[in-house]
Structure to design on (392 residues):
């Protein structure tokens, strides 16, 4: 593949406020054309970055030498946006968070046009005959919505693009799991359940999303639970080689997972492996009060060591009657109180949970399968919350 590609400027969108009606032609055309392109998603991402670096050569310095992780993130972001394009109440906050987060790369307004041109060029290249003038206008309108939300959020944010921090402890629990504690120079203003991006010195310019596993503390200390995933350049290096004194960069808080104590609804939490971190932070926060919504956490893994946080959670449940913990294991069932199966199998057995706010966190396959099974069981989609960025 060559970077010498020819692209056209983004068609001007005349409407000041694009329609957000879920049955508009824009939504239909974007989704139909993306369905044609999605089987070639890897090639689209490669074409996108080759085009971007051809249009804006200086942008190459914002990215790591190895682009595998970055291409994967682009695909997840595209899929997430296409899924939410007719749900502006969910999409716009997500885009605003992305806009604030991208400040850490040094992104400025002029970069957004280059990104839009590269995106349309990549989709056009693999949409083939499905690409028409009407489809091009629909993608231009969709990108205009994205870019506007991100630019406005970036421009309105007067906080730092990232916070410096220092590793003070790495506790290695197993070959592929570690707890890393980082003390930022200034307190990071996250809410319990939110995640941040981090850059470690072992992998410069390769940012990895991690979730603080405790509520904000008076001393500002952040605790991260890091699993070394297959092919995870950043996570594997953190688990294996992070050490006290390492200087980290911590990006702006992101994410929608949270509990509203005043909503009047009980809460179902579904967490797989290190996906327990946002749930642990929320529970830590709720434990400040004697009365809370009832919280039922299904905490799952393949084998018993995957439930590394179970004892701490059970201790919290013993002193907080509003909290209930159900451990779930795929391969073991002899342990007391443990249910056998995957989280996608076990959680729907207990009903549709329509009177609960549902929070789901874990690996992308676990989130996809669990949410799908819950929808089939009758859980309302607008009651389910999960975040799209969960791995390297």
């Amino acid at each position: 593949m060559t970077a010498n590609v020819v692209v056209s400027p983004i068609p001007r969108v005349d409407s000041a406020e694009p329609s957000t009606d879920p049955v508009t032609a824009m939504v239909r055309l974007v989704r139909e054309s993306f369905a044609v392109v999605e089987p070639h998603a890897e090639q689209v991402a490669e074409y996108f970055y080759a085009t971007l670096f051809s249009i804006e050569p200086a942008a190459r310095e914002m990215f790591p030498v190895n682009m595998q992780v970055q291409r994967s993130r682009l695909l997840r972001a595209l899929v997430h946006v296409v899924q939410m394009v007719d749900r502006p109440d969910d999409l716009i906050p997500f885009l605003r968070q992305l806009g604030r987060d991208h400040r850490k790369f040094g992104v400025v307004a002029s970069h957004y046009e280059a990104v839009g041109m590269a995106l349309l060029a990549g989709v056009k290249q693999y949409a083939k005959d499905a690409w028409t003038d009407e489809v091009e206008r629909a993608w231009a309108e969709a990108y205009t919505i994205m870019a506007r939300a991100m630019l406005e959020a970036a421009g309105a944010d007067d906080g730092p693009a990232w916070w410096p921090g220092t590793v003070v402890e790495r506790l290695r629990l197993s070959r592929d799991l570690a707890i890393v504690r980082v003390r930022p120079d200034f307190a990071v203003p996250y809410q319990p359940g939110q995640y941040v991006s981090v850059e470690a010195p072992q992998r410069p310019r390769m940012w990895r999303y991690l979730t603080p596993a405790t509520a904000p503390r008076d001393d500002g200390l952040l605790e991260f639970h890091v699993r070394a995933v297959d092919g995870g350049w950043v996570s594997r290096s953190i688990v294996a080689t992070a050490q006290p004194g390492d200087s980290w960069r911590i990006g702006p808080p992101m994410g929608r997972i949270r509990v509203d104590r005043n909503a009047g609804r009980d809460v179902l939490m579904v967490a797989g492996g290190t996906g327990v971190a946002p749930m642990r932070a929320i529970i830590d926060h709720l434990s400040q009060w004697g009365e809370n919504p009832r919280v039922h956490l299904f905490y799952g893994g393949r084998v018993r060591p995957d439930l590394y946080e179970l004892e701490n959670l059970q201790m919290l449940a013993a002193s907080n009657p509003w909290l209930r913990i159900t451990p779930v294991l795929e391969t073991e069932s002899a342990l007391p109180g443990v249910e056998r199966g995957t989280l996608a199998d076990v959680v729907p057995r207990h009903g549709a949970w329509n009177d609960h706010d549902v929070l789901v966190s874990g690996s992308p396959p676990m989130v996809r399968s669990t949410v799908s099974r819950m929808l089939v069981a009758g859980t309302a989609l607008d009651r389910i919350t999960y975040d799209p960025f969960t791995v390297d």
About this structure: The CA atoms of residues 31 and 100 lie 26 Å apart. The chain is about 40% helix and 15% strand. The first strand starts at residue 163 and ends at 174.
